[in-house]
Design brief:
single chain; alpha+beta; three-stranded antiparallel sheet; 14 helices; globular
């Protein structure tokens, strides 16, 4: 069984990563397999399926009550679009939030202007997406391809399919009859929410008491972490069972929405109140108050918030300075979340923002490499021409060794020039998270009460008094 969650073909950097060339090759194999196992329905004599795919409308319902097929879909980089309004789906998209500065009034106005240019009114886009006008949905992809680049949103939707490129960047959608229709990304987001928050989520009221969405009170004293460990194990099996239970996935959908609303709220608060401190080697932010603080006691949920904030800061740096930190990566970010029940801070270290591939920069580098290769070929042809002229003129090969040495030295110079740019990007350790070693060194130096008990070495727990 192969499970895939796709948000875009450009979600992570590097040619070997999921968002690079290797990832696209894997997705292409999976797309071919989907077509093999889910051939066109012979009963579809009018070709409605083909026309639907050609128009670029994402599927939101099954074809029949017994339809459980997997289909290809031109998924936009929005969040849970089938289960939210278009406006909320765009508002809570991490990709859009960073590039449009959604956390500010100016960013919200940019989003409203983008929707206005696309011809979508606020009243329409705030309806549930499945209830929107069909003509607007049919023209949505074309409008995004036309107007999104004006706001620096290249890659917001997959490019049009053609014979050469096929359906590059398209995602996968599965139907469960009339019960539900979910994309691979939807399932990934919901399963992540079950693992990080639980099926019913947790909220904290003004008095500091915690409740889930059913109104059940949660225990607030757990000094040794035994209750938390037990809850995490239960969440794992709930998530595992939900993979084969569509009703469990639908039941957990509000929890996924709750988590991403909390990320937007908390991230906006941190940025607006300027609660992110810029230290010498990294940035630091602490989440210790507010109604959503209990949601970020799980390292994975806190990491999502840290990446959201890091990407937002990276985009701010890019606009202000014209570049993002070193090698296009944002300054590393350390995020701490208070777990009041246990009297500890959960701390995660991330590499900052800038992780999404810059398509324009990638194209620029490609052109540079092609220009260098062309220049190298021209030099080689020039050397060959000079050599043939010299042989004709002198009629001897006595200087051949000297010529070869000269050519070798020129080639070495060219190779060193070619490698200089690569070294700037692919230097040793680039892209790795070194916070695990850093945390361990600090513990050894300060004797702080720290617990390092995670698959990720960049996640630690620190006593509230020792942070």
């Amino acid at each position: 069984m192969t499970g895939v969650g796709i948000s875009s073909s450009h979600n992570s950097g590097g040619s070997a990563g999921w968002g690079g060339q290797r990832g696209e090759r894997i997705r292409q194999i999976l797309r071919d397999e989907v077509r093999r196992l889910n051939p066109p329905d012979p009963a579809d004599t009018r070709g409605e399926t083909a026309r639907g795919e050609a128009s670029g409308v994402i599927p939101t319902t099954a074809r029949s009550p017994t339809d459980t097929a997997i289909r290809l879909s031109p998924e936009p980089r929005f969040l849970l679009i089938r289960h939210w309004s278009l406006y909320d789906s765009m508002l809570h998209s991490p990709y859009l939030a960073a590039r449009l500065h959604i956390w500010s009034d100016v960013g919200r106005k940019r989003l409203h202007k983008l929707l206005a240019k696309m011809g979508v009114s606020l009243s329409q886009c705030k309806q549930n997406y499945t209830h929107m006008d069909m003509e607007l949905k049919r023209g949505l992809r074309h409008s995004l391809l036309t107007y999104a680049p004006m706001y620096g949103l290249d890659g917001l939707v997959p490019p049009p399919a053609n014979a050469g490129r096929g359906k590059e960047g398209w995602g996968f959608v599965r139907s469960w009859g009339w019960k539900a229709c979910l994309s691979a990304m939807d399932v990934g987001v919901i399963i992540g929410a079950i693992l990080e928050v639980g099926k019913f989520g947790i909220r904290t009221d003004a008095t500091g008491r915690s409740y889930d969405q059913r109104g059940a009170k949660k225990e607030i004293i757990d000094e040794d972490g035994s209750q938390e460990t037990q809850a995490w194990v239960e969440r794992f099996w709930e998530a595992y069972d939900a993979l084969g239970d569509i009703e469990a996935l639908k039941q957990a959908l509000p929890t996924a929405q709750l988590l991403h609303r909390a990320i937007l709220r908390t991230g906006t608060s941190l940025l607006e109140k300027r609660q992110i401190r810029h230290l010498q080697a990294f940035r630091m932010a602490v989440v210790k108050e507010g109604p959503d603080v209990q949601l970020f006691t799980h390292p994975a949920a806190l990491t999502k918030l840290a990446l959201w904030v890091g990407e937002a800061i990276a985009e701010q740096e890019k606009e202000q300075r014209g570049k993002v930190g070193k090698h296009g990566k944002g300054t590393p970010l350390v995020m701490a979340g208070l777990n009041e029940a246990r009297g500890v801070y959960v701390v995660v270290g991330t590499g900052g923002g800038g992780g999404v591939v810059d398509i324009a920069l990638q194209e620029k580098r490609k052109q540079k490499v092609e220009a260098k290769a062309k220049k190298k070929l021209e030099r080689r042809d020039e050397r060959e021409r000079k050599r043939s002229e010299r042989k004709k003129r002198d009629g001897s090969d006595e200087d051949e060794n000297e010529e070869e040495e000269e050519e070798e030295s020129e080639e070495d110079e060219e190779e060193s020039d070619d490698d200089s740019d690569d070294d700037a990007i692919d230097e040793r350790g680039y892209g790795r998270n070194r916070f695990g070693n850093a945390f361990q060194e600090v513990v050894d130096e300060t004797n702080a009460r720290v617990r390092i008990d995670s698959f990720e070495s960049c996640v630690v727990e620190i006593k509230k008094e020792d942070l």
